[in-house]
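User: Can you recover a sequence for this backbone? Please restate the input before giving your answer.

Assistant: Of course. Working from this structure:
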């Protein structure tokens, strides 16, 4: 599965970068394939391992704020590996054609 998610502390002011960095650190240390952009972090793996990383990333932000917002989107598809790369490559192939 691929999960795209964002975790944002609520009530801590406009500068949330430090808390968000802690969530991204959890993802990076997980060893699972991942990408981070301006709005979301995407992570790929099996259900239990991905959801465990998401939970730990949320906990990392909760350690800095008593309230957090989580947005999550999941693509659950059996038998697909390297979807983070292959899905983008498919789109690029169509754009080049």
């Amino acid at each position: 599965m691929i999960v795209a998610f964002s975790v944002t502390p609520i009530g801590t002011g406009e500068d949330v970068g430090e808390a968000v960095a802690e969530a991204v650190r959890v993802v990076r240390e997980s060893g699972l394939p991942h990408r981070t952009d301006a709005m979301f972090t995407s992570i790929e793996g099996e259900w239990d391992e991905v959801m465990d990383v998401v939970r730990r990333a949320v906990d990392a932000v909760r350690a800095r704020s008593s309230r957090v917002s989580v947005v999550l989107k999941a693509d659950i598809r059996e038998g697909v590996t390297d979807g983070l790369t292959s899905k983008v490559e498919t789109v690029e192939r169509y754009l080049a054609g």
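That completes the design. The two ends are 28 Å apart (CA to CA).
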